[in-house]
Design brief:
Distance between the termini: 33 Å
Oligomer: single chain
Number of helices: 1
Shape: globular
Radius of gyration: 17 Å
Structural class: mainly beta
Order of helices and strands: EEEEHEEEEEEEEEEE
Strand order of the largest sheet: 1-2-10-7-12-5
Largest sheet: 6 strands, antiparallel
Length: about 200
């Protein structure tokens, strides 16, 4: 098998960190970023139907997002730069409902984060630029997007290198990275509610 799989990371059932085998020499490197047979051998039988890619600059925080009625399983990675990637368990029957786990994904470590259905997801860009790729097992459905506040104290996500204090809303105002880079969120991501008032799966 060409992958190493850490299952149930953070004690949260279903969350996995996957590291591919990397073969390198003086010319560069080669690795398989996805192999269905390896995934099946590791216990995953997921029908991914779409690949997505985004580019973001330092200080951008995207999230926390989910689809309400058509939830997606995601396999995410950074192909350029570095992000801190986070998943929050929103499965109402889960013993870890409301718990979060985060992992640094970078072009250097080549780690991938497998996030099953029923989680909110987001990431913070730590490098000057980051390119982010992910596979999903369902298509995007208009008008089905949900979200929750990235800084909800009920959840208490510890975003690395982020300086600022909670002022009662998900506004980016007053938050920066340690080097002074302002936190950058979309208008929509500054209006989500906390977990008490958000969707449960």
């Amino acid at each position: 098998m060409q992958i190493n799989v850490e299952k149930n990371v953070g004690g949260i059932e279903g969350l996995c960190v996957i590291t591919p085998a990397v073969h390198g020499d003086t010319r560069g490197y080669f690795c398989e970023t996805y192999n269905k047979n390896d995934m099946k051998e590791a216990g995953f039988d997921i029908d991914f139907v779409q690949d997505n890619q985004s580019m973001s600059t330092k200080g951008v925080l995207r999230g926390l997002h989910f689809q309400k009625h058509f939830p997606q399983c995601k396999l995410v990675r950074a192909i350029k730069g570095e992000v801190f990637d986070v998943a929050v368990d929103l499965r109402s029957a889960s013993a870890t409902y409301g718990r979060w786990y985060g992992v640094r994904l970078s072009e250097e470590n080549k780690k991938q984060f497998l996030i099953p259905e029923g989680f909110a997801h987001g990431f913070l860009v730590l490098s000057d630029v980051a390119e982010f790729c992910y596979k999903v097992n369902d298509f995007w459905h208009p008008n089905d997007e949900g979200g929750m506040a990235w800084n909800d104290p009920e959840i208490g996500i510890e975003w690395p290198d982020l300086v600022g204090s909670y002022k009662g809303s998900p506004s980016a105002e007053g938050y920066t990275l340690r080097d002074g880079t302002p936190l950058n969120l979309s208008d929509k991501d500054q209006k989500w509610l906390g977990i008490k008032d958000t969707f449960k799966f």
